[in-house]
């Protein structure tokens, strides 16, 4: 039973840590568990307990949201500055949507439609040069529909002909927006993609 008790404690402890409750008074926590299991008189009613817990996690959520908003503001400003500076560079074309592109190599083949499907090689970068995705590193081109990708890709690929290679500079609103994508693309990230259009399929 000692091992079972510890194992149960591990599970509950991990859940609490994930919920951001790392500053709990562990002795009071253990006392409450003991009171419930032993049938002792409880120090508060279930309604009082629920109100306290609800209020605590509401404050935690407010704090986390405020931190995210602050981080998002900094990322958005950094992305906007990057794109503003980039727009002044030779060869960079700025479209009304905010999408920017640089022709690395022109193609001569077919041009995809917004409803079409393409085979591409690509590499995706954060503005600091960090690679977050690469079909080149995987050694296999990617095939996808233009309606299945971020708006910056949908717009940009329609400018290309088979055989072309472009570099796209994508504002956050044409990328993964305010939420980002997984651990590798933070919220409000401006993105850079090198894209080679191999084939319209």
Can you lay out the helices and strands and say which pair or pack?
Elements: H1 2-18, H2 26-38, H3 46-86, E1 93-94, E2 100-105, E3 117-126, E4 131-134, H4 135-138, E5 142-145, H5 151-157, E6 165-170, E7 191-200
Antiparallel strand pairs: 1-2, 2-6, 3-4, 3-5, 3-7, 6-7
Structure in words:
- With 201 residues, the protein is an alpha+beta fold.
- The protein has helices at 2-18, 26-38, 46-86, 135-138, 151-157, and strands at 93-94, 100-105, 117-126, 131-134, 142-145, 165-170, 191-200.
- Strands 1, 2, 3, 4, 5, 6 and 7 form a seven-stranded antiparallel sheet that branches.
- It starts with a helix and ends with a strand.
- The model has no long low-confidence stretch (mean pLDDT 91).
The sequence of SSEs as H and E is: HHHEEEEHEHEE
Largest sheet: number of strands, sense, barrel closure: 7 strands, antiparallel
| Number of helical segments with 4 or more residues | 5
SS content category:
alpha+beta
Oligomer: single chain
Mean pLDDT: 91
**Uncertain ranges:** none
How many extended strands?
Answer: 7
Estimated share of beta-strand residues:
15-25%
DSSP helix fraction: 40-55%
